[in-house]
Amino acid sequence: MRLLVSEDTTTPIYWLNWRFLLCAIWVLTSMLLASFLIWKYERSDNSKTERGETQQESPRILRNDESWKPCLKEIHPLFLVIFRLIAFCLLLVSLSFDVAAHGGELFYYYTQWTFTLVTIYFGFGLLLSINGCLQHYKANSCSDYHVSEVVEQGLYEPLALGVNENGAKLQKRLECPEEHHCSRTAGLCGYLFQILYQISAGAVTLTDGLYWTIIFPFLTIRDYELSFLTVVAHSLNAIVLLGDTALNSLGFPWYRISFFILWTATYVIFEWIIHAFVSIWWPYPILDLSFEYAPLWYLLVALLHIPCYGIFVLLVKVKHLVLSKRFPQSYQFCP
Hints:
- By secondary structure, the protein is mainly alpha-helical.
- The chain has 10 helices and no strands.
- It has one domain (12-47, 70-147, 178-326).
- The longest helix is centred in the middle third of the chain and has 44 residues, at 110-153.
- The radius of gyration is 25 Å and the shape is globular.
- It starts with 11 loop residues before the first helix and ends in a 9-residue tail after the last helix.
- Keywords: Membrane, Transmembrane, Transmembrane helix.
């Protein structure tokens, strides 16, 4: 879908006006606010953890196993591996066909940025899930080995009160190094994966929601046809992401909307830089700064980030409420 070039975007007059000034203020203000949220909450999270403060006194700590463990104990981690493998293959094949059909200029669209991000999310998640399954298998193998060892030695070493016949304290034989690995705080990969998840969720809601509710119903572009690849680009990412949300154990804190805002702001600045040097079509009409109401459109899209991100926050809270009540012994997600 190409739009006609309304004005020459390489001329100074296109940029040196009150419309661009207001739009720049909206974008830069959003980026500063997002950066402040990251500095405040991510920094306080790390510093309070180092001082040994409780989890209630700081933002929620991400556990090491949340990136690969399903939210219910009855669901084996291998099931999440299979789901992420299928989702990754579908997304990668769809993206490859789309690029082959339309070329590299496809990445002028925010939709393809988001689709690529979701593909990376599932590829990264697949690797973490495979690694988690290996940890899960090792932990179970280690536990089974020590259980059999305790049974064999039970006739010789009394286990009551955790002491032997000489009064010496016995080592806990059911402990396994891999068991403690799962309860540790997540490292860089775990936090990066959660951030990818939260950016993807907000961006998918924004792109698919705007396309099906605003752009598609009011399309007036000549010779525009709704192709199969276009439908896939604006629906498949949402479907697989909702499926992953239903299965995973990842939290969804509000303050991480900051990364979603920075993601969109980076795309807008990328478009500004491209159009400042090359006079080409705008991928979305609301980005065209020659329109009189361009600042209003920019402000509206900026404000839409709140409900788009909030929809997934609400979905995760509803999921927690329903599953924690229906499966209280099996549910293993701590919001």
